[in-house]
Amino acid sequence: MVNFMYEERRITAGILGEIDHHNAAMMRRKIDMELKERLPEEMVFDFEHVTFMDSSGIGLIMGRYRLMNEIGGKIIIKNVSDRIKKVMKLSGIDKVARIM
Fold this sequence. Notes:
Elements: E1 2-7, E2 10-19, H1 24-38, E3 42-53, H2 55-70, E4 74-78, H3 82-91, E5 98-99
Parallel strand pairs: 2-3, 3-4, 4-5
Antiparallel strand pairs: 1-2
Helix pairs in contact: 1-2
């Protein structure tokens, strides 16, 4: 599940539960619709309530990075558990997004 919060030119997507191949496609569609409609300067992924992430989560973030790059925006990822942060760094996400 994804919940959105809006602040001026920033969209925060609060991700709830697991990010796996079963629900990543739905999350992509919802997030893409919001990004295309609002054209924000910043896209924030809030991982505070993420309990699991597999490679589908990496794809979710990288695809939104490409979309944000096209519109001149940037990605920020916050409230990441140590386990998921390690996966993100191994995949190179920390090179394209700020992880807080």
